[in-house]
Design a protein that fits this description.
By secondary structure, the protein is mainly alpha-helical. It has 13 helices and no strands. The longest helix has about 120 residues. Bound molecules: zinc ion.
Length: about 475
């Protein structure tokens, strides 16, 4: 189960259901439809138990709306109308997302928070917008960093290629915006930018060492060969001349000298051979030590070089992926968080203005306030519709089709409610009790309703 912040804006819709009337074509109903296509029933209430409960709730809602307008006039305050507007707007944002539970909870709570924040600053909407202008980018970058951190849940392909890139991207997600903003004249953010960039570089190098440099091929071929051990020398003297027989004392002396000389030569030859063998062995050992040293140095240099190259290439690849993830997370958080919250703020301000217009219209009945009332209601509903379209992430054509179908059905219900409610709360004023009179809106809705009713009658008569 993924955490909600990785789900919103990309949630798979739950099963779509129709109303409980027989023959309801569920296949034609889009996940964001509010009314069933066959009967025009309000789908969020379609699963409620039939009969009395639904009847009571629906009429309690209608009475509450009328009571809100009545209280606005009686208390001479826009607050009850604002409460009605807030409730209707909450339904307008939450109901189309009803098969996206996590996104719906996020949208409804986020909308309520923004609308309440706007309402506490009724007299200082510039302050509200300034605070939003600081808070929204901050939340944007924090959310981008969180998305980058959890990238393996929404971009498994990148995560498989390089898991560490997400952590580097989390660092970049706030370092790059901080750098841009600090260059615009906010030097205080330079430290944050520097920390983030150094952190990103250190992260990339760490990933380079761990998943690149420590996984090199350590076999180094093409080294100097070791010389074979030299064979022993076999220097020998030629065989001694056979001894001549001595022919007198003088000859004996000569023979003795000859024997001595031959013996000395033999000893010298053995000594020379031993010395030469020893020297050759020493030189051989020296050569082995030198070649071993050279080979070791070559191995060290080659491995270090490979390690450096692998570390560097892995670090660069990690940085490249990190930049890619940062861009994707920034775009995603802009669509899922920044744009919807900005739209919520626009809708929140529009609902405040709408409540003011309702208040003044109920007191004065001025046509200008009626126009303002309609314009602000349209702005709020359009902003909230755009918000749920962004958050449901469905193709635009389907969303627009869904929205127009909902608007047609809700508009029809709204005209009926306006006519009935307008006459109900306006009639006492017409008879001289209370501040509300039957005004342009009620009369217009009544005319519309009567015209629609007559056209329906005419059509029935034409095609029996
Ligand atoms: Zn139906």
């Amino acid at each position: 189960m993924l955490p909600w912040w990785l789900v919103i804006g990309y949630e798979q819709p739950g099963p779509v259901y129709g109303c409980s009337d027989p023959g309801c074509a569920v296949a034609e109903i889009a996940p964001t439809d509010l009314y069933c296509r066959t009967h025009g029933h309000f789908l969020p209430a379609a699963t409620w138990p039939l009969g009395r409960a639904r009847f009571v709730v629906a009429n309690a809602a209608r009475i509450a709306v009328c009571a809100g307008f009545l209280l606005t006039a009686l208390l001479d305050s826009p607050i009850p109308a604002w409460v009605v507007g807030l409730a209707v707007a909450t339904v307008a944002i939450a109901a189309p997302l009803r098969v996206y539970p996590a996104t719906r909870a996020f949208a409804a709570s986020c909308w309520t928070l923004v609308a309440l924040a706007a309402a506490t600053q009724t007299r200082n909407l510039e302050g509200f917008l300034t605070a939003l202008g600081v808070a929204l980018p901050t939340v944007w970058f924090l959310y981008s960093a969180a998305l980058s951190w959890g990238v393996d849940h929404w971009r498994p392909r990148i995560a498989a290629a390089d898991r560490g890139a997400g952590y580097v991207a989390a660092s970049l997600s706030f370092a790059l915006p901080a750098l841009v903003v600090s260059l615009q004249g906010f030097p205080a953010l330079r430290i944050a930018a520097a920390v983030g960039l150094v952190g990103a570089a250190a992260g990339a190098v760490t990933v380079g060492i761990v998943s690149g440099g420590m996984r090199i091929d350590t076999v180094v071929s093409a080294q100097l060969p070791y010389p074979p051990r030299p064979p022993r020398l076999n220097w020998t003297l030629p065989p001694k001349q056979p001894a001549a027989t001595a022919a007198g004392p003088f000859d004996r002396l000569g023979l003795a000298l000859s024997r001595f000389a031959h013996g000395s030569l033999r000893v010298s030859a053995i000594a020379a051979r031993t010395a030469a063998d020893g020297t050759r062995l020493f030189l051989h050992l020296l050569a082995i030590v030198v070649i071993g040293l050279v080979n070791w140095l070559v191995r060290v240099v080659v491995r270090t070089w490979r390690r450096m190259v692998r570390t560097l290439t892995t670090a660069c690849r990690t940085l490249w992926w990190a930049l890619w993830i940062t861009a994707a997370a920034t775009v995603r958080s802009f669509r899922v968080l920044v744009l919807p919250v900005a739209l919520f703020a626009a809708a929140g301000i529009a609902v405040l203005r709408w409540a003011d217009h309702v208040h003044r219209y109920l007191i004065d009945g001025a046509i200008a306030d009626l126009a303002g009332l309609g314009a602000t209601a349209a702005i709020a509903l359009l902003a909230l519709t755009a918000a749920w379209m962004l958050l449901s992430a469905n193709p635009l054509v389907g969303s627009v089709r869904s929205a127009t179908h909902s608007a047609e059905n809700a508009g029809a219900n709204g005209v009926v409610l306006t006519t009935v409610g307008g006459w109900t709360i306006g009639l006492p004023g017409l008879l001289g009790f209370g501040p509300i009179r039957v005004g342009w809106l009620t009369i217009g809705a009544t005319v519309l309703l009567v015209a629609a009713f007559l056209s329906l009658l005419a059509r029935r008569r034409r095609s029996p």
